[in-house]
Amino acid sequence: EVQLVESGGGLVQPGGSLRLSCAASGFTFSSYSMNWVRQAPGKGLEWVSYISSSGSTINYADSVKGRFTISRDNPKNSLYLQMDSLRAEDTAVYYCARDYCSSTTCRFDYWGQGTLVTVSS
Amino acid sequence: EIVLTQSPATLSLSPGERATLSCRASQSVSSYLAWYQQKPGQAPRLLIYDASNRATGIPARFSGSGSGTDFSLTISSLEPEDFAVYYCQQRRKWPLTFGGGTKVEIK
After folding, report:
1. Average pLDDT for residues B1-10, to the nearest whole number?
2. Interface of A with B (CB under 8 A)
3. What is the reported pLDDT for B13?
4. Looking at residue A95, what DSSP letter applies?
5. Which of A118, B16, B32, B71 fits a disulfide with B91 by CB distance 3.0 to 4.6 angstroms?
6. Interchain contact, A114 vs B43, CB within 8 Å
7. Interface contact flag, A105 B50, Cβ < 8 Å
8. Do residues B47 and B59 lie in contact, with contact meaning Cβ atoms separated by under 8 Å?
């Protein structure tokens, strides 16, 4: 069974840092690209970042570029999101999502349950 | 950035009725569009990918259509468990973007 479990969320002051983790199990982690998607309270979904299966290709939303860093450790079956210079508008539930890619395109076929990040003084 | 506009924002229907949700892209996304369902307190779930392909385990009452800039998600006969928020998402260009969502509520 595919499982994605996020951790590392919490309360942090503006300007602070936080590192999120996503532990993957039930599939060959090193074969899949991964993403972080967030959802502010009562709002819609916002894609945050993508990392290819090998880690060689990375993309970010403009809203987090230069502040967030995505990475992965394939032997540890883990995905990470280092969040620096946090702002109030980064307050959200952060989901990790697996990318399933076919010959045509990719889609988020499995999601974790999310971890809440609150940026407030 | 490709902007996805979903309409209506809220759809009030009764169980058994047909629901038609719209997603319009600011530029062509070809068929690289997916639909997700989200219930309160839960993570999103993939329903449709490549505009019209049902994901594994998704009931046949869910169908997707469209290409280019205009897409729709149809639920042929609403079941009680279908009342939720639905999001479209494009995979044509970076950054990946989602629509603002359509809430399907019980009338």
Report:
1. 97
2. 35, 37, 44-47, 50, 59-62, 95, 102, 104-109, 111-114
3. 96
4. E
5. B32
6. yes
7. yes
8. no
- Give me the mean pLDDT over the B42-67 stretch: 97
Token digits for B46?
């993939």
Is A36 exposed, middle or buried (CB count within 10 Å of its CB: 0-12, 13-18, 19+)? buried
Answer yes or no: do B101 and A44 touch at CB < 8 A: yes
Local structure of A71: helix, strand or coil:
strand
Give the whole-angstrom CA distance, residue A52 versus residue B9.
34
Q: B74: distance to nearest CA of chain A, Å?
A: 19
Average pLDDT for residues B70-89, to the nearest whole number? Answer: 97
Q: Which two tokens stand for residue A19?
A: 């590192």
Q: Is A21 helix (H, G, I), strand (E, B) or coil?
A: strand
Q: Indicate the pLDDT class of residue A32, thresholds 50, 70 and 90.
A: very high
Spatial neighbors of B40 by CB under 8 A, at least 6 apart, are: none
CA-CA-CA-CA dihedral for A105, A110, A113, A115, to nearest 10: -40
